[in-house]
Amino acid sequence: MAYINQEQYYTNNGVSPQDANWGSYQYITLEDIVNNFMLMYQGNNEIIGNINRFQVVFFAKRAIQELNYDAMKETKVLEVTVDSALRVVLPPDFVNWVRISAESNGVLFPLSENTQANSALAYLYDQSGNILFDQNGNAVSPQFSELDLARINGTAPILFVNPLSPYDGQYGWCIDDVWYFRYGLNTEIATANPTFTIDKKNGVINFSSNMAGYLCVIEYVSDGMENGNEALISVNKLFEDYIYAAIKYSIINNKAGVQEYIVNRARKDRRALLMNAKIRLSNIHPGRLLMNMRGRDKWIK
Q: Percentage of the chain with pLDDT > 90?
């Protein structure tokens, strides 16, 4: 990795964006990792003989992906506005969500996930109840299914008023002049805030009807691949030795004729370096522990 002076770090030599190098020293790029491995860990006098660069890149990417899933937990934050369709497309590098919030008056309100289906695929039918197909033989679907329309329109229960009825003052649904009531509370969605459901297959987040027009903040875990650009893919330097060990183990483990004790030693090195890096990155600081311990004798009124 090439070192930069302070002017380059703070101002990027006046080139936009000026914040391009901020915080960069704590990371090492995939390009540097692969170059270092090719120089130091493979060759005629090493356990790993001559190997193609694309193999090192592949195993390095897999190691970084596993770190993002398991250890680093570095989240990305995306801000979007929910439109009238109550649907937000997932980011292209989305792997899993951490928290989804709605912004109101400068305050973020975490939203609850509704595991019940609130969106579905529907087909169009003719008057005889047969599915309609296009010229390619694919079933024709409407823009929104009935389930989607109910979510978007926010078909909410209304108050039943009849002093002579035991249901007076209860919320229900009036369908064709007939009242229907539901007993029991679904605590999963018993909240004044909007709810959401993530449709991973279609790559969207579906929100409840009261989310239209809100500013949504999505905190999510990425695979860290940055569209495959080796110069942009980076990993914390605390994991650098683990990446080398993971590449080494993957190459040895997939190579024919390697003694088992060599494979086991490489596996143990990889595991030990991962545990060490996790401990370092956990950032357990005595001062932080002390601050928490100071509050142990507080009186709770």
A: 20
